[in-house]
């Protein structure tokens, strides 16, 4: 077989493209993979406005409407559960295409829906696409990106979700001018257009180098690594790390090889994850599930989906004021996610998560307290409490977005061993979507049972528990090659010391 152009410890001499172009290539790949998140965000944003017209046109009850709003996340469990095995079978790139196909069909079904069951079928199909997209985008980006910018690039899906939400709001505004029976159908149907753009864009994307190695395509894997690494030496080092993790000897340099047990790839993964995990894998799984649970159980979707209701309870009587405050929430969320994305590789995952969840706890406590005071003083205009409620909603969204929002996806896409990564990440996404659906479909009932202030104090308690969990269970992963991540897990106290050593060593090597 032909040689892949590399030998162990030897760099072949050939004309090399400027490395700045290589960084831009990795950047472009991350953007294209994150297009799936724009489609997801669009669906979230557009449903917030379309729901008003759907209720009027299809004569839905409040319960039917609440289920319609939140059921997408429950349906996405189907896609999340299948995404890991699918991406191991057909590859990361074509799994992204599959997600786009589900989005396209779901958007058309919802756009042409004539009754409640019809639109629920559309939500089901789109929900499968959501499950696929939320797992595969961060995994693909983490596997393509070099370690120095992996956190930054893997945060893109969260940014693009918020861009999609804003596009959904714009769609609501323009199509609301149409007759009721047409407006909401155009709002939902237009969501099929980004899916087509995604399918075309994917043609320019390379396959994940780690998936290629597992298929025995070492030459193709090196070409991708060479395009996305800062130096050729780094590309060779990354390839050797992947080969070592896949059980392939480093001295094998053929373009195409036969990987042992390739046909059984994916088999036994669930057993290694859930039945007989090593101490390190068990720690990784607990960390992944814990961070996904905490992200949603602390109440972010309650704020995003029900901001107008929250501001109404806080004392903003005018619908215009409620709408302006809700738009401000979206703007703050997007801006601070950009900030979090830019600093995740500088300050590290652990520091951002602890800072973020601490700020969320303080914001939720203040928000719950102010809403309780307003609720217990009906008929009075307590300007300080109204101001505190609005301000703490903003600070909650800001502190969430700087850490818990983007870092959750970065962290869980990079900590699993390569053989377990797709299925492990899919478990995290399944729990994330399940909690999101539960919060979205029960918040109104919860706020009636506990009062709205009590509901946010409950979320504050979850945030406090999450801070303790993050401090205890999550080691720092910044700058670590994916193939060495497993060494950070398994012994909690030892890992923190090891991280300090690893970071210190890394700084010395860089300078």
UniProtKB/TrEMBL annotation:
Pfam families annotated for this entry?
Sugar_tr
Cell location: Membrane
Membrane topology, as annotated, equals: Multi-pass membrane protein
InterPro entries tied to this protein: MFS_dom, MFS_sugar_transport-like, MFS_trans_sf, PLT1-6, STP/PLT_plant, Sugar/inositol_transpt, Sugar_transporter_CS
Q: Residue ranges of the Major facilitator superfamily (MFS) profile domain? A: 29-478
Q: From the record, give the transmembrane residue ranges.
A: 25-53, 94-113, 120-140, 152-170, 182-205, 323-344, 351-374, 386-412, 424-446, 452-474
One GO MF term: carbohydrate:proton symporter activity
Main location as per UniProt: membrane
GO CC, sorted alphabetically, is: membrane
Note whether Membrane occurs among the keywords.
Answer: yes
Keyword annotations for this protein, in alphabetical order, are: Membrane, Sugar transport, Symport, Transmembrane, Transmembrane helix, Transport
Under the heading NCBIfam families, the entry gives: SP (TIGR00879)
The Swiss-Prot or TrEMBL record describes its family as follows: Belongs to the major facilitator superfamily. Sugar transporter (TC 2.A.1.1) family.
Q: What is this protein called?
A: Major facilitator superfamily (MFS) profile domain-containing protein
């Amino acid at each position: 077989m032909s040689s892949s152009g590399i030998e162990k410890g030897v760099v072949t001499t050939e004309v090399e493209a400027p490395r700045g172009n290589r960084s831009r290539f990795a950047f472009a790949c991350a953007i294209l993979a994150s297009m799936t998140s724009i489609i997801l965000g669009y669906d979230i944003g557009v449903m917030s406005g379309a729901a008003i017209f759907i209720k009027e046109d299809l004569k839905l009850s409040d319960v039917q409407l609440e289920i319609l709003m939140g059921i997408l996340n429950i349906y996405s469990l189907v896609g999340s559960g299948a995404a890991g095995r699918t991406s191991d079978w057909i590859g990361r790139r074509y799994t992204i295409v599959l997600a786009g196909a589900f989005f396209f069909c779901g958007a058309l079904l919802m756009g042409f829906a004539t009754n409640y069951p019809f639109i629920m079928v559309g939500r089901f199909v789109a929900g499968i696409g959501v499950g696929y997209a939320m797992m595969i985008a961060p995994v693909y980006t983490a596997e393509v990106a070099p370690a120095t910018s992996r956190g930054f690039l893997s945060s893109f899906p969260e940014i693009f979700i918020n861009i999609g939400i804003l596009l959904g709001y714009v769609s609501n505004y323009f199509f609301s001018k149409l007759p009721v029976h047409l407006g909401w159908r155009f709002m939902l149907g237009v969501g099929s257009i980004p899916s087509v753009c995604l399918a075309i864009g994917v043609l320019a994307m390379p396959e994940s180098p780690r998936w290629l190695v597992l298929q025995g395509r070492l030459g193709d894997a090196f070409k991708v690594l060479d395009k996305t690494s800062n130096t050729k030496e780094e590309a060779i080092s990354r390839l050797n790390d992947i080969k070592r993790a896949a059980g392939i000897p480093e001295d094998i340099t053929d373009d195409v090889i036969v990987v042992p047990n390739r046909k059984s790839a994916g088999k036994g993964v669930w057993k290694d994850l859930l039945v007989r995990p090593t101490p390190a894998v068990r720690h990784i799984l607990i960390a992944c599930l814990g961070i996904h649970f905490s992200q949603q159980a602390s109440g972010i979707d309650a704020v995003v989906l029900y901001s107008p209701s929250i501001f109404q309870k806080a004392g903003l009587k005018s619908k215009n004021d409620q709408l302006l405050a809700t738009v401000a929430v979206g703007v703050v969320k997007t801006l601070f996610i950009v900030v979090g994305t830019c600093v995740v590789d500088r300050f590290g995952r652990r520091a951002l998560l602890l800072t973020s969840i601490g700020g969320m706890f303080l914001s939720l406590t203040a928000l719950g307290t102010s809403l309780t005071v307003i609720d217990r003083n009906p008929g009075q205009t307590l300007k300080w409490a109204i101001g505190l409620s609005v301000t703490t909603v903003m600070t909650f969204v800001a502190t969430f977005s700087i850490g818990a929002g983007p870092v959750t996806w970065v962290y869980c896409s990079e900590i699993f061993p390569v053989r377990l990564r797709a299925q492990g990440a899919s478990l995290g996404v399944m729990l994330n979507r399940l909690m999101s659906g539960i919060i979205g479909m029960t918040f109104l009932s919860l706020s009636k049972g506990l009062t709205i202030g009590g509901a946010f104090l409950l979320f504050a308690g979850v945030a406090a528990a999450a801070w303790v969990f993050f401090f205890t269970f999550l080691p720092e992963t910044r700058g670590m090659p994916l193939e060495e991540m497993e060494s950070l897990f398994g012994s909690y106290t030892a890992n923190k010391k090891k991280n300090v050593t690893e970071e210190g060593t890394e700084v010395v090597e860089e300078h």
